[in-house]
Amino acid sequence: MGVNEKIIEKTIYFLAFSAIFILLLITIFIFKEGVPFLFNYGVLKIIFRSSWSPSDQEFGIFAMIIGSIYITLGALIVGIPLGVACAIYLCEFAHKRTRLIIKPTIELLAGIPSVVYGFMGMIVLAPIIRSFLGGSGLSILSASLVLGIMILPTIISISMDSLMALPKTYKEGSIALGATTWQTVIMVLLPAAKSGIIAGIILGLGRAIGETMAVIMIAGNSLKIPVSVLDSTRTMTAGIALEMGYAIGDHRMALFAMAVILFIFILLLNSLVTFIFQKK
Amino acid sequence: MVSLLKRGLLIAFIISIYLFITRGSKTATIIRLAGSTAFQPFAEKLADVYMDKNESAVIDVQGGGSALGIMAVNQGIVDIGMADMLQLPRVVSHLTKVVCARDGIAVIVHKDNPIENISKKQLQDIFTGKITNWQKVGVSPAPLRVISREDGSGTRKSFDQIVLKKNKLTINAMYQDSNGTIREAVKSDENAIGYISIGFINSSVKTVDIDGINATNENVKNGKYTLARPIYLILKKDIGQDARQFIDFLLSNEAQTIISKNGLIPVK
Which residues from A are below 8 Å from B175, CB to CB? Predict the structure, then answer.
């Protein structure tokens, strides 16, 4: 019995660390491939130049960094209000039967492959935006809308979990003091569930910045620095995925260098968000 | 009883996986091909036909793009590298190359676009960004949207060499990563212009004549339509007899007929 338990304990211990181990391997591999090029070509030259033309040995990714930032921001602007509002409604206002229908439907959204989202965006959303707002339709706006919907399930389920996990006494106490349900939600429940909701937003942000297939299909992949939400743009992930299949030599190393920058970028963004909200 | 059944199922499952894994490991030498995604479906199809005829042959076809095909054959990882570009890079100049098919590139626009013909100079001006409005080429005024392929694509390289010459693609260009997605993008945008392999054309988009010449396989074959590129098979240094036989098959009448039936231009 004792021996058995020890073995199981050790196995689980090992499994828990395997995730970290794999992350470490990925990190080492990307940095090994990308960092030498980053320094040979010049970090600043790569980050702050916007002319990307591998066949002419030009590897500036500024336009793609901007593209990633705009599309991720756009997705969050669409996704956060919708997601948090939906979670509040489902937890505090919805009838139990409504919740039983809506919650699984939202979770179903998470199971749709991103290529399907991309295809829908390309065939349905882009022509609508083109005819009503102009531009090519394959734009930051359409990519943001689609990504905003894609990150909804993440934000909603994690926000719901943290709202549900609050002790019942919070709500009861607030109502007993004469607050309306709405006041209770805004002043008591949301602040109390803040850390969970932010965790959901961070996960959603990770999904938005890392999404590749859907973005390739709906953002148009232009290399110009976008000046309006109707402009087409290319994100870093799209840039890597579009060209990795063909890239050899310097071009391939440049794509890995871009992955290194993306990696650092996501790390910074995550710590920034965590830092800001923990301080308050 | 139930657990016995479960155990039986588990054993059957494991055995079937074992059989599945060991099934392919025949002792015959494997002929490996890799490279051009434009020719990959054809190579797969022809490999199937060849393997049906020769029981002992095993042919493994992979994509990866022309650049990968060139790199892999240069390092001897594959027996035959496939590449669809006008000029092969110098690194493979010491290897034997065979042209096994040709592929035309058609310029496409939306179905409702009235344009019928365009000159090569106009095409160059459009793709370099000198012309940004459809009015300049005789169509009602509307912004012109250029859709190109990603850097590294064989189609892009050939198009740039034939149409753009030494000039650069316009900064306003949008990019798609395959013939199919370019066709979808042009199909849904009245003001778009793009280019795809002739084999990918269907009724959802409209092809534009270049200098009055229709983009058809016939016109590529007789040399009138110049927007075309060869598909190269690059042979490994010490290539085996089996692989040579397969190449002979690819150049045979039977294989060339299959190639032409499926939309590429045969060399014979």
Answer: 220-223, 234, 242
- Contact A126/B175, CB-based, under 8 Å? no
The CA-based angle B150-B154-B155, given to 5 degrees, is 75
Give the domain ranges of chain B.
2-102+230-266, 104-228
In this prediction the pTM is 0.81
Helices B40-53, B253-261: axis angle to 10 degrees equals 140
Verify whether the Cβ–Cβ distance B171 to A224 is below 8 Å: yes
- Any chain B CB within 8 A of the CB of A224? yes
B173 touches chain A (CB under 8 A): yes
Q: What is the pLDDT of residues A13-64, one digit of tens each?
A: 888 899 899 989 999 999 999 999 999 998 899 999 888 888 888 899 999 9
Instruction: Flag whether A4 is in a domain.
Output: no
Per-residue pLDDT, A1: 61
| Whether domain B2-102+230-266 has CATH 3.40.710.10 | no
Instruction: Convert the pLDDT of each residue in A82-141 to its tens digit.
Output: 999 999 999 989 899 999 999 999 989 999 999 999 999 988 999 999 989 988 889 999
Strand partners of residue B101: B231, B266
Q: Contact B177/B149 with Cβ under 8 angstroms?
A: yes
Residue whose structure tokens are 């909603």: A156
Q: Do B184 and A122 touch (CB under 8 A)?
A: yes
Task: State which residue of chain A sits closest to B174, comparing Cα positions.
Answer: A222
- The Cα B41–Cα B262 span in angstroms is 10
Out of B67, B151, B176, the one facing A53 most closely (by C-beta) is B151
CATH for B104-228? Answer: 3.40.190.10
Q: For A153-180, b where at least 16 C-beta lie within 10 A, e where not — what string?
A: bbbbbbbbbbbeeeeeeebeebeeeebe
Residues 41-70 on A with a CB inside 8 Å of B are: 52-55
> What is the Cα–Cα distance from A4 to B82, expressed in whole angstroms?
56
CATH code of A100's domain: 1.10.3720.10
Domain membership of residue A161 (yes or no) is: yes
